[in-house]
Amino acid sequence: xxxxxxxxxxxxxxxxxxxxxxxxxxxxxxxxxxxxxxxxxxxxxxxxxxxxxxxxxxxxxxxxxxxxxxxxxxxxxxxxxxxxxxxxxxxxxxxxxxxxxxxxxxxxxxxxxxxxxxxxxxxxxxxxxxxxxxxxxxxxxxxxxxxxxxxxxxxxxxxxxxxxxxxxxxxxxxxxxxxxxxxxxxxxxxxxxxxxxxxxxxxxxxxxxxxxxxxxxxxxxxxxxxxxxxxxxxxxxxxxxxxxxxxx
Length: 248
Prior knowledge:
- The protein is mainly α.
- It has one domain (2-246).
- Helices cover 72% and strands 0% of the residues.
- Helix 6 runs antiparallel to helix 10.
- The longest helix is centred in the last third of the chain and has 29 residues, at 154-182.
- It is elongated and about 65 Å long.
- The relative contact order is 0.16.
C-alpha cells in the first residue's frame, strides 16, 4: 500500500510541476507530457528521490489547483446559473406555486428572482478559496494518505469536514450583500407579494439568506468533486505502469 501511495503521489506531484501552471490546468495535456518523457527516455529516475513529505506537498499543490479551478469556474457569470447541477432553483416551497405564477403573467418576475439568486452565489464564490487554502495547509500526512487511498471524493469529503461550517458563516453576509446588489430582495418581494395572494401560501415562505448560502456552498462541493475526479481518473488505467517506467 505504501508503494501505491508513493506512485499515485508522484503522479499528482508531476501534475503540478508544469513549468507555467495556471488555474485552468489541462490535466490531459500534463499527462501527455509524462508519456512523451517516458517515450523519449529523458527521465532519470528522479521520482525515487521524492520523500514522503514531497509527495504530500505534491498532493497539496494538486488540490490547490483543483480548488482554484472550482472557485474560478463558479465566480464567472453564469458559473451557477447555466450549470444544471449547480443552478440555484426557486426554494422548494415556492416551487409549489411556480406554475400558478407563470400562468398568471408573473413568469418574468420568477425568472428575474431565480437569476438574481445565482448571481449572488457567483459573487460570493471567490471568498471560499482562502478557506480551502487554509484546509490544505492544515493537512497532515495521515490526511493526505487517507485522501490518496480513499474513494473518488475523499478530498471533497475532507474539505467538507474542514470548511463547510466556516463557509456558511463566511459566505452568508457576502450573499446577503450580493443579493441586495443583484436585486434578489426586490425580486423576492415581487414574487412574495404575488404568492401571498394565494390562499395559505404565506406558510411556505423561506429564510432566503440561509437558502441561497446553503445552495452556494453545496454547489462549491459539487464542482470540487468534479475537479477531484479529473485528478484521480485522468487516465487512471495507465498511470501506475507508466510511473513504474518513469521512476524506476
